[in-house]
Write a sequence for this structure.
């Protein structure tokens, strides 16, 4: 896309946990994680900022799940689950049953971009799998 000097506005993310590809009015769990990851890289969000932005997007059933299951119950076993996106991600994947297709795996494991340093690349891949992967 040629630079026209215009600012491109991004739509606000909203995730209720109720969508499928056919409804079209909300994001699927995978689409939500993909959009959040793109913004994390674009705006250089750290782990805490990514978690804050994720929490701000929840509506409906996803918001009720987060407030009741994560904030009230899980944080006592693992306090970082409400402040760290890396700690929260496996819980989210389990709850919303995020499965990966071969095409999605190619996107996640795409080669390191020139704009990505090794740490950013490692974080991108690690966040998907919910555990730290060291590429050193």
């Amino acid at each position: 896309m040629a630079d026209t000097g215009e600012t491109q506005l991004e739509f606000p993310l909203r995730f209720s946990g109720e969508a499928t590809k056919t409804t079209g009015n909300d994001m699927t769990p995978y689409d939500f994680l993909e959009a959040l990851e793109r913004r994390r890289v674009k705006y250089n969000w750290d782990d805490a900022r990514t978690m804050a932005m994720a929490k701000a997007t929840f509506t409906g059933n996803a918001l009720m799940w987060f407030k009741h299951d994560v904030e009230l119950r899980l944080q006592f076993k693992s306090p970082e689950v409400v402040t760290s996106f890396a700690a929260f991600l496996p819980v989210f994947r389990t709850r919303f049953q995020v499965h990966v297709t071969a095409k999605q795996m190619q996107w996640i494991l795409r080669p390191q971009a020139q704009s990505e340093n090794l740490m950013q690349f490692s974080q991108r891949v690690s966040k998907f799998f919910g555990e730290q992967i060291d590429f050193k």
